[in-house]
Amino acid sequence: MYVHNTWIHLKPEHRDEYIRLLVEEVRLAKQREPAIKRFDVYQNLDNPNLIHTYEVYIDKAAHALHYEQPYLKAFYERTAAMYDMSKMAAERPVECKNLEPSDDDWN
Predict the structure, then answer these.
(1) Domain-embedded: residue 101
(2) Tens digit of pLDDT for each residue in 67-105?
(3) Is residue 96 part of a domain?
(4) Is 54 domain-assigned?
(5) Domains: count for the chain
(6) What is the pLDDT of residues 35-57, one digit of tens each?
(7) Confidence (pLDDT) at 1
(8) Which of 29, 35, 42, 79 could hold 58 in an S-S bridge, CB 3.0 to 4.6 Å?
(9) What contacts 75, CB < 8 A, 6 or more positions away?
(10) pLDDT in tens, 2-30
(11) 37 within some domain
(12) What is the pLDDT of residue 89?
């Protein structure tokens, strides 16, 4: 398993459109990429401009393949101006080792 978490800071004026586009992209990815085991999207209750994704892939290669998909590249091109980069710059992805649940719990 490979887990990828993102915290996405949005410009308030783009929040609703971004969320709509993100949900569309996630649904498309789950339909087309069988190596995605889970892909959840959350909105922070205290700060509605903060979005979190929790993505589970069968392995790191499946995650890399996701980033090669044309629809994801088009999504990033369309949404590039919607991010609040002043807040996102401080947060970088961190790779972690899964301690619990075991891989069998996902099957």
Answers:
(1) no
(2) 999 999 999 999 999 999 877 766 655 566 666 666 566
(3) no
(4) yes
(5) 1
(6) 999 999 999 999 999 999 999 99
(7) 86
(8) 35
(9) 21, 22, 25
(10) 989 889 999 999 999 999 999 999 999 99
(11) yes
(12) 63
Whole-number CA gyration radius for the chain: 14
What is the CATH number for 16? 3.30.70.100
**Residue 14 tokens, joined:** 């783009």
H helix or E strand, kind and range, residue 88: helix 85-88
- Count of C-beta atoms within a 10 Å radius of residue 9: 19
> HEC string of 12-80?
HHHHHHHHHHHHHHHHHHHHHCCCEEEEEEEECCCCCCEEEEEEEECCHHHHHHHCCCHHHHHHHHHHH
| Predicted local distance difference test score (pLDDT) of residue 92 | 57
Strand pairing category for 36-43 and 50-57: antiparallel
Place of tokens 């002043």: 86
